[in-house]
From TrEMBL:
Biased composition range(s): Polar residues: 592-605
Regions annotated as coiled coil: 35-143
Family assignment from sequence similarity: Belongs to the TRAFAC class myosin-kinesin ATPase superfamily. Kinesin family. KIN-14 subfamily.
Keyword field: ATP-binding, Coiled coil, Microtubule, Motor protein, Nucleotide-binding
Cited SMART domains: KISc
Keyword Membrane: no
Protein name: Kinesin-like protein
CC per GO annotation: microtubule
Residues reported in the UniProt entry to bind ATP: G278, Q279, T280, G281, T282, G283, K284, T285
Signal peptide: none
Ranges of residues in domain Kinesin motor: 195-517
UniProt source species: Aegilops tauschii subsp. strangulata
UniProt keyword Transmembrane helix, yes or no: no
């Protein structure tokens, strides 16, 4: 706080107080001087205050700037400290890495020295061996020269051996070609006989089986010749013979290639049945359906049918339709139906041994692009379940029926054939699957229908007079394609695991019994609807033939009348000819007289006019004669036509 100045040893404030209270402390002049001095001092001090205030502000600004500079300096110092710390850490890391690399380099150097010693020893050893081999080579060379001198015709013998080797290779090639032809002819003979052909396919071991320590018990040494062996009980081996054996390395295309000739016979009018048999989890569904990237038999079959139909379109027209159904718990279910129906589907006989299921959806497919969607629709609707053996086990028999109607554009022949592609449900041992409830009922029905299939196979093998097709829905549906007029092929699927050895032997035993069965020569399936049309056409043709015979009889009577009329006209024609001859003779005489008259007229110029008139008259007569001759020619043509009739 500022102090007031003092005047004459009196405080200005104190003096002012005395003046205010007493009013007579100083004279006016003194007061004036005091006031002036006071005012000057106040102004002076105010200026000083302002200067000090401005200096204070400047110093405050300088302090704030200095403070901010100190803060920035501190921040920079902290940053430098952190960088220094990081550099120190990096330096420590580099030192550690350097130490590690130094150790590694030391180890590498030691290894190098050791390897160098080993390589030096190995090289010296090789040098010794090379030296020994050179010595042996020299000895062998001497022996070879001795042999060459001892056998002067060695080169000829070598050429002869080479010729024999080439001949042997040629014979091997011819042998393989003949074996392929023999196998092809054998297959043709088997198809002609009507034998059920059996192909065996083995899946690879799964990851679960491999991790569980299971081993492969299947021997594929004779697979190329159709032989497959099962090692059961240690060293015991049982061998089976089939038409074809596929190893786990064979792909889907190779599997279908052997079934292709049988498939194409459907387009020729034959009924065909192809089914996959085996225990659950052996890959039957994969063989028949496959995946979108690895198609199975079903898709490849339709693909080839469309391909061949396109090649034959100039001579034969084909209509192809597809039905997908399943036999689940001895009930037929339509897998292409858009909505579930309460009506029970039953099998009816359509006549002459053929069967059909009224009410089943027949999807007409025009090209291969529509096929996969139809097959997927059926596959997605199929009943599947889980058990101890297979997580996604098929609980029904899935049956794809391909119906082909063909008409030959050259001779008019019509056929109606059927191809069944059946993915059978897996045979199961109830003790092994531990099925209960619905799964137990499904397994019992599956085994019952497979047993019925076995009964049909046994009856066919023994040529029994009664074949029990009606014991199961499965065999009843396959009756027209598993009988004496059809062709059949079975894929038996097996597991290579020793855990499934007993089931594998059971499947192969069943398949070996199936292989020898003869169904008899297959017959073309004539379209009965077209046959009925042909019968109706024959009846119409007979009626038309009767009408034509009646009209022909009337025509013969008319011909006889025309012949009698023609005889009369012939007599008239003869008479006309006689008249014509007379007219010709008269014409000749008149012509002679005319010549004579012309001579006379040439001599007589005065009679020229009369000659012209006579000539005109003669010309008229000639026209009349030509007209008569024309009539005669017309009558001749009429008579000739009548004779021809």
């Amino acid at each position: 706080m500022l102090a007031f100045p003092s005047i004459s040893n009196l405080c200005v404030e104190h003096a002012a107080a005395k003046l205010g209270t007493r009013g007579s402390g100083l004279c006016k002049k003194c007061l004036t001087d005091v006031e002036k001095r006071t005012a000057k001092l106040i102004s002076k001090y105010e200026k000083q205050i302002e200067e000090l205030t401005s200096q204070c502000n400047i110093k405050s600004d300088e302090c704030s700037m200095a403070w901010s500079l100190v803060e920035s300096t501190n921040q920079e110092l902290d940053r430098l400290k952190m960088e220094l710390h990081q550099k120190l850490v990096q330096t420590d890391n580099f030192e550690q890495v350097l130490d590690t690399q130094t150790d590694q380099l030391r180890k590498v150097s030691q290894n190098y020295e050791n390897d160098k010693k080993l390589w030096a020893a190995a090289i010296s050893n090789l040098e010794r061996k090379i030296k020994a081999m050179k010595q042996e080579q020299a000895l062998l060379s001497l022996e070879a020269h001795d042999c060459a001198h001892a056998i002067p015709d060695l080169s000829k013998m070598i050429e002869a051996v080479r010729a024999l080797v080439a001949q042997c290779d040629d014979l091997k090639m011819k042998y393989h070609e003949e074996m392929a032809k023999r196998k092809k002819l054998h297959n043709i003979v088997q198809e002609t006989k009507g034998n059920i052909r059996v192909f065996c396919r083995c899946r690879p071991l799964s990851k679960v089986e491999t991790s569980s320590g299971y081993k492969c018990v299947v021997d594929f040494d004779g697979a190329n010749d159709g032989d497959i062996g099962i090692i059961n009980g240690g060293t015991a081996k049982k061998t089976f013979k089939f038409d074809r054996v596929y190893t786990p390395k064979d792909d889907q295309a190779e599997v279908y290639a052997d079934a292709s000739p049988l498939v194409t016979s459907v387009l020729d009018g034959y009924n065909v049945c192809i089914f996959a048999y085996g225990q659950t989890g052996t890959g039957k569904t994969f063989t028949m359906e496959g995946t979108e990237r690895n198609r199975g038999v079903n898709y490849r079959t339709l693909e080839e049918l469309f391909k061949i139909a396109e090649e034959r379109k100039d001579t034969v027209t084909y209509n192809i339709s597809v039905s997908v159904l399943e036999v689940y718990n001895e009930q037929i279910r339509d897998l292409l139906a858009t909505s579930p129906s309460s009506k029970k589907l039953e099998i009816k006989q359509a006549g002459e041994g053929s069967h059909h299921v009224p009410g089943i959806v027949e999807a007409k497919v025009e090209d291969i692009n529509e096929v996969w969607d139809v097959l997927q629709t059926g596959s997605n609707s199929r009943a599947v379940g889980s058990n101890n053996v297979n997580e996604h086990s098929s609980r029904s028999h899935c049956m794809l029926c391909i119906m082909v109607r063909a008409k030959n554009l050259i001779n008019g022949d019509c056929t109606r054939s059927k191809l069944w592609l059946v993915d059978l449900a897996g045979s199961e041992r109830l003790a092994k699957t531990d099925a209960q409830g619905d799964r137990l009922k499904e397994a019992q029905n599956i085994n019952r229908s497979l047993s019925a299939l076995g009964d049909v196979i046994s009856a066919l093998a023994s040529r029994s007079s009664h074949i029990p097709y009606r014991n199961s829905k499965l065999t009843h549906l396959l009756q027209d394609s598993l009988g004496g007029d059809s062709k059949a092929l079975m894929f038996v699927q097996i597991s290579p695991s020793d855990n499934d050895a007993s089931e594998t032997l059971s499947s192969l035993n069943f398949a070996s019994r199936v292989r020898g069965i003869e169904l008899g020569p297959a017959k073309k399936q004539v379209d009965t609807a077209e046959l009925q049309k042909v019968k109706q056409m024959l009846e119409r043709s007979k009626q038309e033939a009767k009408l034509k015979e009646e009209s022909l009889r009337k025509l013969e009577e008319n011909c006889q009348n025309l012949e009698s009329k023609a005889k009369g006209k012939e007599q008239l024609y003869k008479n006309l000819q006689d008249k014509v001859k007379e007219l010709e003779s008269q014409l000749d005489s008149k012509t002679h007289s005319q010549i004579t008259s012309e001579k006379q007229q040439s001599q007589l110029s005065g009679k020229l006019k009369e000659k012209e008139e006579a000539c005109t008259a003669l010309q008229h007569k000639i026209v009349e004669l030509e007209r008569k001759l024309g009539q005669q020619h017309q009558s001749d043509s009429v008579v000739a036509a009548l004779k021809q009739t």
